[in-house]
Design a protein that fits this description.
Elements (H helix, E strand, L loop, with lengths): L9 E11 L3 E7 L7 E3 L1 E8 L2 E13 L2 E18 L4 E13 L2 E10 L8 E3 L1 H7 L1 E7 L9
Parallel strand pairs: 1-10, 2-9, 3-8
Antiparallel strand pairs: 1-2, 1-7, 3-9, 4-5, 5-6, 6-7, 7-8
């Protein structure tokens, strides 16, 4: 006898996630019109650590274990990607963030941006949404971050 398939998770277009291991809660948008995922940051600085390229940046959190407001993060640069707009092209760093979304932690590669549209620092595009679940554009905050650890 075949078992019933598990229903896919349905997310709203805007959700909350928790950045691990810092435990900082941030808003994120799920945007199926965007091919790639990005993170809007402030105070972006590059530096060397152990002979590798790293970045330090701040993002606006909606809460942490120690309060709310901006949180400063450091991550290794995985690669640089060419970014074009109508005025110029530039190289943008890509970092990996561990995000608690629902009851799972996902390690996702995000393109760093120093300016962005919208109010959420994290914008998840099709590259991430494809393995998360479905997006209902008429809803928000359907899945609460609840990762144990």
């Amino acid at each position: 006898m075949a078992s019933a398939a598990t229903a896919p998770v349905v997310f709203g277009w805007q959700e909350k996630s928790v950045i691990e291991p810092e435990r900082s809660t941030v808003d994120m948008e799920l945007d199926p019109t965007s091919a790639t995922s990005s993170l809007t940051v402030q105070d972006l600085a590059t530096f060397q650590k152990g002979g590798e390229d790293w970045v330090r940046f701040s993002i606006q959190g909606t809460g942490t274990l120690t309060g709310s407001g901006a949180v400063t993060l450091e991550r290794q640069v995985l690669r640089k990607e060419k970014s074009k707009n109508s005025f110029s092209s530039s190289q943008r760093q890509v970092v990996r963030l561990s995000l608690c979304i629902g009851d799972k932690v996902y390690a996702e590669d995000l393109l760093l941006k120093t300016h962005g549209k919208g109010t959420s620092p994290i914008k998840l595009g099709r590259d991430v949404i494809a393995h998360l679940g479905l997006v209902d554009a008429s809803r928000t905050e359907q899945v609460k971050p609840d990762c144990k650890g």
